[in-house]
Amino acid sequence: MDRIQHLMQAIPSGASLVASSYCSTPTTLLNRLGAVADKSAGLSLSAGLLLGDLAFLDAVRRGDLQFRTWHASGPVRALATSGQVGYLPARASSVSALVGRDTDVALIRVSPPDSRGRCSLGPSASYTKTLVESARIVIAEVDPDFPVPQGDDTWVSTDQIDYFMDSDTPMAEYPSSDPSSAVREIARHVVGLIPAGAHVQLGIGAVAEAVASELARSGPGGLRMIGLGCDQMTDLMASGQLISDGRPSIIAAELLGSEKIFSAAGDHPGIWLASSKTIHNPVWLASLPRLISVCSALAVDLSGQVASETMDGKVLAGIGGSADFFDGAGLSPGGVRIVALPSVTAKGISRIASSFGAGTAVTMPRHSVDVVITEHGVATLTGLSTVERALALANIAAPEHRPELLHAAGILPAVSALSA
């Protein structure tokens, strides 16, 4: 393992690079890359959800660095929508194969080596180890404050790293948001559908965090959390709601939060990280009884189709693990697939839509959704006809939007006639 000061010493022209993501974003390496990238070098970078200081995006705006992502967020959204960043519609279970194919250079963030010559990959286990094993060249930034969680896929040997550079940027965190009254009501509805002894998968964002908090207050007990760990799960751990059977009660591919969850993961055998080859494997997920998968969305149409990536031509997020978790929950004994979202956007636009336009991708088809929840109630779609689905979904939309939705579905005249 050689120490380098100048990144381009190690990166050949025309190289295909892949970076680790989430709270393991290698911000020092990315921003050094952005500072020296030149269009003539023909470099192409791919990554998932990136957090922290993303100054390297200036090079993308200049056209000096090509960038592709399978999960847009923050400033990446506008660049993906304008076409300056390429959007890859990839589900989490496919990312390991994606990064394992023809990757020249891996850019990762690691802890300092331990006494056995191993570096921790920190809070992101989804695809980083596969990336290290597949790339022709591995460059790591060493963060002395990086957390060291326990897990199957969280370590690499220094022999697997070709070059390292000292990190000069703080580790990225994912700040929690204060839940609105609507989000808290959604969380109460969700928790009401979770049975004792369930395996519970929560997605990213305010609704997922609120559900974790509500489970800590009023959950049914005996729970095991799957997929992702967030700050609110430390309260869940302390509440006694999680199962205590000698095995980890939180099994995740990512820890997405702050020091609160990172420090807990380093000290607690109940938190265990594993790669997407396990966590996002629908076959493994289907083996878990009572898997309750709760995913967020940008919008749901009156047939039950779910949009989680793009809306009206704007790239806003990604598929993530939602398709994998829903596939697994659909085959799990007692499993339930739940989409939970506020009924309106910040601008008051209904997130229960009459239909989706050409600029909105369908992330999950209508047959993959069992339940949709807003702050206004629960729509159980299983076993309903298309007309019955539309009525059920319109009834959990914001009251001011219900008439237009019922009219769009051709239901309003019938409803009016019945009430006359």
The shape is: globular
Proportion in helices = 25-40%
Percentage of β-strand residues: 15-25%
**Which regions contain 5 or more consecutive residues with pLDDT less than 50?**
414-420
Mean pLDDT: 95
Largest sheet: 8 strands, parallel
The CATH architecture of the largest domain comes to 3-Layer(aba) Sandwich
In which order are the strands of the major sheet placed? 1-10-8-6-2-3-4-5
CATH H-level homologous superfamily name of the largest domain:
Acetyl-CoA hydrolase/transferase C-terminal domain
Q: CATH class of the largest domain, anyone?
A: Alpha Beta
Description:
Strand 2, helix 1 and strand 3 (44-47) form a beta-alpha-beta unit. With 420 residues, the protein is of the alpha/beta class. The chain has 15 helices and 23 strands. Helix 7 (206-218) runs parallel beside helix 8. It starts with a strand and ends with a helix. The protein has helices at 27-36, 57-62, 75-82, 92-99, 128-134, 181-191, 206-218, 232-239, 259-267, 276-279, 282-286, 322-331, 386-394, 402-408, 412-419; strands spanning 2-3, 16-19, 44-47, 66-69, 86-87, 105-110, 118-120, 137-142, 155-157, 163-166, 199-202, 224-229, 250-255, 271-273, 291-295, 299-301, 306-307, 310-311, 314-315, 336-340, 352-353, 371-374, 377-380. It is globular and about 70 Å long. It has an 8-stranded parallel sheet with strand order 1-10-8-6-2-3-4-5, with helices on both faces. An 8-stranded mixed sheet has the order 14-13-12-11-15-20-22-23, sandwiched between helices. Strands 17-16-21 form a 3-stranded mixed sheet, covered by helices on one side. The protein folds into 2 domains: 2-166, Glutaconate Coenzyme A-transferase, CATH 3.40.1080; 181-413, Glutaconate Coenzyme A-transferase (3-Layer(aba) Sandwich), CATH 3.40.1080.20.
